[in-house]
Prior knowledge:
This protein is mostly helical.
Amino acid sequence: MMTMSKSSRIPVPAPPGVPAPTTASKKRRRLPRNASLIIGLVLTTIFLAVALVSIFYLPSNPNIPVIRNRLLPAGTPGHWLGTDVLGRDIIAQLMVGARTSILVGAGGATFSLILGTIAGLAAAASGKMTDEAISRGADIMLSIPGMVTALVLAATMGSGALTTILALTAFFTPSFTRVIRSAAIGVLNEDFITAAKLYGRGKIFVLARHVLPNIAGVMIVQFTLYFAAGILTEAGLSYLGVGVHRPSISWGMMLNEAQQQVGVSSPLAIWPGLAIVLMVLGLNLLGDGLRDVLDPKLARRAS
C-alpha cells in the first residue's frame, strides 16, 4: 500500500463561501495577543530600568527639604515634574518609589510563589488527609482580610517594607496554593505520570522532573499577576499609613503625602497615581500575553 508524504497530501478545500485561511490572516489573529505581550513587556521593562537606575543615580536627594523650591510647577528647569510642599524633587521620589514598590511587590509575590508551590505540590501528591488539611488551611487564611493581617503585623512588628512583604506573603500564599494544587492534579492524572511510576520513579522525582516543568507556565503567569496585585496592595497600605515610611519612599506613601495638597497642587497626587496605573497595567498585559503564549490550548486555538 502506497503512502503519501506530507508534501504530496491533497489539500482539503474550504467550504463554499468561506475563504481559506491564509498566513496573513493567522498573523492578524495573533496580533492582539502579541500586542498585549509587547506592550506589557515594554511598560514593565521601563519601570524596572528606572528602579535599577535609581540605585546609582538620582537628580537630587528625595528626603532633603529645599524650602525655597517648594511647590514648583511641572516644567520647571531642573524639576521637570515639579516639587512637593517641602521642595523635594518629584522625579527623584518617583524613581526611589519605583524601586521600593517593585521590591515589595516582587518580594511578596516571590515568597508566596515558593511557599504556595511547596504547599500545592504537597496537597496534590500526598494522601487525602494531607490534601484536606492544606486545602482547609488555605481556605481559613483566605477568609481573613489581608488588610487585617497587615494591621496586626504593623502593630506587632512596626510598619515598613519588610512588614508589608510579610503581609503580602501571608495574603497571597493561600491563593497560590490553590492554583498550584489544581494545576498539579491535572498533570498527575496524565498517562506519562503513570508510566513514570511504573518505571519506579519516586514521588519527589516525578514532581521535580515531570510536574514542575508542566506547570511552569501557570506559575509564571500567576507570579506576574500577583506582582501587580502586590504593588497595588502596598500602595493601599502605604496610603493608609501602615506601609512604607520615610526615609523609604513608595508611590502609595507619595499619595498619602499629596492628599493634603489636592486643590493646591493636584499634580502631586497625579504622578504617583499614574505610575501605579501604568506599572500594574504593564504587569497585567504581560501576564495575559504570557498566558496566551505558554498555554498550549490557547496557542492551538490562535493558530
